[in-house]
Amino acid sequence: MIKDTLREAAERMQTILDVLDEDLASIRTGRAAPGLVERMPVDYYGIQTPLIQLATISVPEPRQLLIRPFDPASLKDIERAILASDLGLTPNSDGKVIRLSLPQLTEERRRELVRIVNNRMEETRVKIRNVRRDLIKDLRDFEKEGLISEDEQERGEKDLQELTDRMIEKVDEAGDRKEKEIMEV
After folding, report:
1. Do residue 110 and residue 178 come from a single domain?
2. pLDDT tens digits for range 108-166
3. How many other C-beta atoms can be found within 10 angstroms of the C-beta atom of residue 73?
4. Is 32 within the bounds of a domain?
5. What is the residue range of 87's domain?
6. Are residues 111 and 21 in the same domain?
7. Which of 3, 13, 48, 68 is close enough to 41 for a disulfide, judged by CB 3.0 to 4.6 Å?
8. Residue 82 contacts by C-beta under 8 Å, 6 or more apart in sequence?
9. Cα 5 from Cα 1, distance rounded (Å)
10. With left for phi above 0 and alpha for psi between -120 and 50, is residue 45 left, alpha or beta?
């Protein structure tokens, strides 16, 4: 029963970490990366569709993204979505592909992006602690119902705390990596 609870905690916390990784990938650094626009919603025939489902995205140069739509008719929709996004980029289209040139980040913009990363990291830490809180409550309920002993409950809580600490370390590592990417000139 305790093993199941710990396994559930690990799965839920890993899912939260995966979401953070996707989230951090969409934050712009000094280099071009497909993750910057992959999940961008595009209004394609009235349906919000992620850009990755509509086009191939490549990096021909360190500061440039090349977007090649599968359906040439979607080119204008993709351009509109890029202009409407908060990326602050202007698409350059030749009728077949879209080129996005990423300008150099200013020091002020870099610091702003680091603040965003720190906020996302803190939100993730809170979510992980919420999982811990929920599962500690479950362990205490199991003990009250007589399903596990008090010693097993305490051991389970200790193991859950160790798991939480490891996951929060991973959050910090991911954030530190992203921060270094952003501050790299």
Report:
1. yes
2. 888 888 888 999 999 999 999 999 999 999 989 988 988 888 888 899 999 999 999 99
3. 9
4. no
5. 44-101
6. yes
7. 48
8. 37, 40, 89, 90, 91, 98, 100
9. 6
10. left
